[in-house]
Every structure is written in C-alpha cells, then in structure tokens.
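Reopening this ticket.

The earlier resolution said the output was attached, but the attachment link was broken on my side. Pasting everything inline this time so it's all in one place.
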Amino acid sequence: MRRIRVIFGGHVQGVGFRATTRTFAHALALTGWVRNEQDGTVLAEIQGLSPDVDRLLELIARRMEGMLRSTDIEEIPVDSSEVEFIVRR
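Inline output:
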C-alpha cells in the first residue's frame, strides 16, 4: 500500500481535472482526495497499490496532455481509515 501527495501545475483548473482524477481513481479502486488550490495548482492525496497509483498518474498525464506542466510527488504515510476517493472543495 502506498500514499502520495501530488501537486499538479499548469492549466489544471476549470478543465475537469478533479472530476477526471476522481473517475480514474474510482476505476482503479484508489482512495484519497483532490482539490483546487488558491495558487492555481491542484493538490491530491492518492492511496492504493503502487502499480495502481502509478497507473492513475499515467492516465492523468495522458488525458491532460498539453495542460499539465508539472507533477510534484511526495510519499506520505498511509491513511488506513480512508474508504473512498473524493473531490474536496
């Protein structure tokens, strides 16, 4: 099990980024959350099996090609109480 905190930069707000991330995360049975930040980035915490977390990042990069400029990833502790992936406001 792996959990990462990711900051996505580029033209990532107002383009369906959070909904797309949630859809892919649900399909991969991942947990966590995603939200827009004041500085124009999107912040997410993503948790699940390592290959599935990596696959989510690949799917996002492919879907958001041309809009996504940076992806900063930090490994963080697993949250064993989490049960779903949500969009935070």
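Reporter confirms the inline version is readable. DSSP finds two helices and five strands in the chain. Helices lie at 17-27, 50-63.
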